[in-house]
């Protein structure tokens, strides 16, 4: 099995080329690949498969050649991943499976069709599902009770601004935040935010950490950055603008208008290799059986 490793602001992925959908990708295989001690290591797996060859992509095969089959590191799959989509596009371009287009490169995802464009030598920008702000909701973390805003970016988010006196860097995200399963029956990515300093060329600057469902804390979350930007603009009484979102892995830029949402930042491929199948190492799940 061939693989490539890539990341977007530290949000890292194992990329599997499987154009004809021949690979039997299972939750156990995904968890093994993403295991940071026994496998390659990653926050998730990106399978590169033709839309026409994947049952969840075939409906979009007339609009996009490639379907991003994204799986979380625990073997579950998600509707959308903003950093993953940018790394996916980087792989398509660098491997010659696609060429840049002025109209934007279309990619099929479980959240629908997205488009990407190249910005400079390293950055990829992708048009995301437009964030939809929902109702207030609560989250608990180590005795800290927070009220945040639910946001749908093709996948569920809860954006929680920290109160004065609580340091973002001091949060313990080794355990999942407590949320109401009746409000988030499919789970939720929880973003914790603090204001950043003024930044030229932007309409706002936010610092963010995130606990992702299915992956625990990650160094970055693209859909989470979009959710955070939408809340920041709402709180500033703005309908549109550009928000810089600093995550532990770097900086993402989100530009929102009334009908579009573009996420931009670096997308980097760092290694390629091959693995034998079946994999020659056990996973924690195997050891527990």
From TrEMBL:
Pathway in which the depicted protein is active: Amino-acid biosynthesis; L-lysine biosynthesis via DAP pathway; DL-2,6-diaminopimelate from LL-2,6-diaminopimelate: step 1/1
Swiss-Prot/TrEMBL keywords: Amino-acid biosynthesis, Cytoplasm, Isomerase, Lysine biosynthesis
Domain of life from the UniProt record: Bacteria
Principal place of residence: cytoplasm
Protein name: Diaminopimelate epimerase
EC number: 5.1.1.7
UniProt-recorded Gene Ontology molecular function terms: diaminopimelate epimerase activity
Family the entry assigns: Belongs to the diaminopimelate epimerase family.
Subunit structure: Homodimer.
Lineage of source species: Bacteria, Bacillati, Actinomycetota, Actinomycetes, Micromonosporales
Catalytic function, reaction form: (2S,6S)-2,6-diaminopimelate = meso-2,6-diaminopimelate
Keyword Cell cycle: no
Annotated substrate binding sites: 11, 72, 82-83, 155, 189, 212-213, 222-223
Site features described as Could be important to modulate the pK values of the two catalytic cysteine residues, chain residue numbers: 157, 212
Gene Ontology biological process terms, A to Z: lysine biosynthetic process via diaminopimelate
GO CC terms: cytosol
Top-rank EC class of the record's enzyme: isomerase
Cited function: Catalyzes the stereoinversion of LL-2,6-diaminopimelate (L,L-DAP) to meso-diaminopimelate (meso-DAP), a precursor of L-lysine and an essential component of the bacterial peptidoglycan.
Record gene name: dapF
InterPro entries per UniProt: DAP_epimerase_AS, DAP_epimerase_DapF
Coiled coil: none
Catalytic residues as annotated in Swiss-Prot or TrEMBL: 81 (proton donor), 81, 221 (proton acceptor)
Signal peptide: none
Entry's localization field: Cytoplasm
């Amino acid at each position: 099995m061939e693989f490539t490793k890539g990341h977007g602001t530290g949000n890292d992925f194992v990329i599997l080329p499987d154009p004809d959908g021949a690979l039997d990708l299972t939750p156990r295989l995904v968890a093994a690949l993403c295991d940071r001690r026994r496998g390659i290591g990653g926050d998730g797996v990106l399978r590169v498969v033709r839309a026409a060859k994947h049952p969840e992509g075939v409906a979009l095969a007339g609009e996009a050649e490639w379907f991003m089959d994204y799986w979380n590191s625990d073997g579950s799959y998600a509707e959308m991943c903003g950093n993953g989509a940018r790394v996916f596009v980087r792989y398509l371009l660098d491997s010659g499976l696609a060429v840049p287009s002025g109209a934007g490169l279309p990619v099929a995802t479980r959240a629908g069709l997205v488009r990407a464009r190249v910005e400079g030598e390293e950055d990829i920008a992708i048009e995301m599902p437009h964030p939809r702000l929902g109702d207030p909701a609560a989250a608990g973390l180590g005795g800290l009770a927070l009220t945040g805003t639910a946001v749908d970016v093709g996948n569920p988010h809860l954006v929680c601004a920290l109160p004065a006196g609580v340091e973002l860097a001091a949060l313990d995200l080794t355990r999942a935040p407590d949320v109401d399963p009746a409000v988030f029956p499919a789970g939720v990515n929880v973003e914790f935010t603090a204001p950043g300093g003024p930044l030229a060329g932007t309409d706002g600057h936010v610092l963010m950490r995130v606990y992702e469902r299915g992956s625990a804390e990650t160094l970055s979350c693209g859909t989470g950055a979009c959710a955070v930007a939408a809340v920041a603009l709402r709180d500033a009484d703005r309908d549109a603008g550009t928000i810089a979102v600093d995550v532990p892995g770097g900086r993402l830029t989100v530009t929102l208008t009334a009908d579009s949402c573009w996420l931009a930042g670096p997308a980097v491929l760092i290694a390629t290799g091959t693995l034998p199948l079946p994999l020659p190492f056990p996973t924690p799940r195997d050891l527990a059986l």
